[in-house]
Write a sequence for this structure.
């Protein structure tokens, strides 16, 4: 047997509920695949590169299931505002100035930031998304990039033109980069769409087979407006218009009734929890323990950096592991193991990367090695708890995506960090006159 | 004029509400004091060491106003449990095995971890606290270490013996290390004390002038028990017994009525917010916005690592900046500026280090330099927001305490990190048979 990479003697977090921590062991990678997982070294194997991971924890790469990567351009710009105030008064005026170069520079920095904090895949929604897709291909990160009928004023020349524009994007990027990329259908939200465009989107999703990527039940006022307009909740009108008949990743899902959660469960929607953003914009706390109790698979995302204000999934895991205990006064509300499932396997599900998100033979080799020897992690009494409660993105040492090492010893291998930083600052100085 | 250190061209966060960010400037240090703060370089000055801080943010060192440093030994040991379950079933059985060597090794690692994440002072409560005081002196970190009449079974030989034991500790360490150390009176909690020992403690605090360091209103059941026993809330019985007549740092303060908050305000108690621990142990959310609205100065702490599970005050600031927006649905509930005041100036107030916590001429030189150029902080549109919402302890580059550089370029100058890690692991292996 031949292996390209053999990770030796790591503490292995598998990503599988009930068997989350596997103790110390070895992980072999051949091409883009995990070809060996075991407690002992594989026998009779020719190995191209060995990684001594004795002081590392190996775990599935983190899956950021909701973000808007170019929004790093507006990081920390507007604080202490509600969603509407933040979006319409601060963010959109800047967004109106964005060029394709800004989007490209923002995407590059966001991807570099995500890799440096252990994210190996992300689900993205923004404008000029081909810039983001190209940046992902260049970096070698897994990504699912969404484009919708209303994105970038695609509907200016009518529905058929918008569909053609989307189809062209999908055919170019869906499966590109040896399967690194997927595409999906953005349906921004019930409040920016109307019944007609929701139905058009549902039909288009069915026709193209795309996953629908939507903001859903983010704020109380969004829900109230939907009841006013449709006599039902946002997720109710989504079901009504057929939008939930294929795979759906629904970001936020904060304001849900029990009935709304039953729709999520029945239609196998994957809700994406964005706790930092929901607090930052005072949207509220998503009922994650309640969803988990119903057997719903909840994924995790950072949202865009402008409402977070970073893209560190370790920070997001930490927060997701804590806030529900505080809200429900139940310390078992969301366990560390739940959080890792959310950040890995359930994210993979949300994005349609089913062969990622867990460590087992036959899966794609999306693996991160996390330094377990930082003072803040000594002693390492419980690797699963440590990943959620005391680890930060800065502890990530090595990132492997699709079998390719994209970061080693915290050095990016596929991207020029200095150039990315320089370009981003240049774009920011244009946008903010600084 | 002569200066030992001149920090050049840093972005300066002052720590003062209303003038929190001062733009780029220069900070001069002579001996243990800040002797210059200005937009331009000081003229006619002989400088021993210049620090080019062009890519740094200079801010007051963080003040961890509630922790139990040796509890790093039990980091991530017990997760997903209530305070009672966690304390009595997991923590105390291990604590019963602790030796002075364990306490010393735990204190050393905790202090190293705190310095590495930008903390320059901490308020500590535990057993064998002279080990912690000695560790703080060795490291050169500012600390206020508490010892109480009931600590370490001091009362075994009666009240006078316990008082003598405490007095000896206070006289040895209060003001030691050129004012680096202070001591205070631990009164663990209303639930572990009774009316007699509360009164004894109040008298002893008045006699010695020590600040009282107490856990107060942490859980709902603590409050209910006090009503059952005393017919009043825990803070009510504290006032009744005279315990609030001098300076008091009160950790947690989660379950407070409006009347309880009025007592805090009236008696100038400094409540110490521990959001991670309060969520981790499912105690709840402290009413911080409500306290701020009353003009109460709230400080911030990590609590011990066993209920956090790290000692990173940047993580704590991040969480403190977010959760109250989520709970109140008001994005202005606790602002980034509020959080920095809590973590710096108000912490200094809680510990009795009034000349720390802000950057101005005449204050003690407790200053940290934070790398502002991490990808997760680019672009740096707002340093105050960035420190709260997108910075982690790993971004701290340089730490100066009392004019002495204790970390430079992330290298500890006064402590041997490898030895500390080795010793801590040795202690943990003894305690947990690993």
């Amino acid at each position: 047997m031949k292996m390209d990479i053999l990770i030796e003697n790591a503490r292995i977090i598998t990503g599988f509920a009930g068997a989350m921590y596997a103790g110390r062991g070895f992980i072999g990678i051949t091409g883009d695949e995990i070809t060996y997982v075991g407690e002992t070294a594989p026998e009779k194997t020719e190995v191209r590169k060995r990684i001594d991971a004795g002081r590392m924890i190996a775990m599935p790469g983190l899956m950021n299931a909701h973000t808007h990567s170019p929004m790093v351009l507006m990081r920390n710009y507007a604080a202490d505002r509600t969603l509407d105030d933040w979006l319409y008064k601060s963010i959109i005026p800047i967004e109106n100035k964005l060029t394709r170069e800004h989007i490209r520079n923002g995407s590059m920095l966001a991807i570099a930031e995500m890799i440096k904090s252990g994210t190996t895949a992300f689900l993205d929604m923004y404008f000029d998304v081909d810039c983001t897709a190209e940046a992902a291909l260049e970096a070698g990160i897994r990504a699912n990039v969404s484009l919708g009928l209303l994105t970038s004023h695609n509907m200016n020349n009518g529905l058929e033109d918008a569909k053609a524009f989307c189809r062209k994007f999908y055919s170019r990027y869906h499966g590109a980069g040896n399967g690194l990329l997927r595409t999906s259908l953005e349906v921004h939200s019930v409040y920016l769409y109307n019944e007609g465009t929701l139905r058009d989107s549902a039909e288009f999703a069915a026709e193209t087979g795309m996953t629908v990527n939507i903001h859903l039940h983010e704020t109380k006022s969004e829900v109230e407006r939907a009841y006013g307009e449709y006599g039902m909740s946002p997720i109710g009108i989504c079901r009504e218009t057929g939008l939930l008949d294929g795979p759906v990743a629904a970001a936020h899902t904060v304001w849900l009734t029990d009935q709304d959660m039953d729709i999520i469960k029945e239609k196998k929607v994957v809700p994406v929890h964005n706790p930092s953003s929901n607090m930052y914009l005072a949207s509220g706390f998503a009922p994650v323990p309640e969803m988990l109790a119903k057997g719903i698979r909840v994924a995790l995302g950072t949202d865009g950096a402008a409402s977070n204000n970073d893209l560190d999934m370790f920070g997001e895991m930490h927060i997701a592991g804590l806030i529900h205990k505080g809200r429900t006064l139940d310390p078992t509300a969301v366990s560390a193991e739940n959080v890792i499932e959310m950040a890995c396997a359930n994210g993979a599900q949300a994005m349609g990367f089913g062969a990622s998100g867990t460590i087992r033979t036959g899966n794609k080799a999306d693996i991160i090695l996390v330094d377990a020897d930082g003072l803040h992690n000594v002693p390492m009494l419980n690797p699963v708890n440590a990943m959620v409660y005391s680890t930060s993105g800065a502890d990530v040492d090595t990132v492997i995506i699709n079998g390719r090492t994209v970061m080693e010893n915290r050095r990016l291998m596929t991207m020029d960090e200095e150039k990315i930083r320089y370009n981003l600052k240049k774009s920011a100085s244009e946008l903010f006159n600084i």
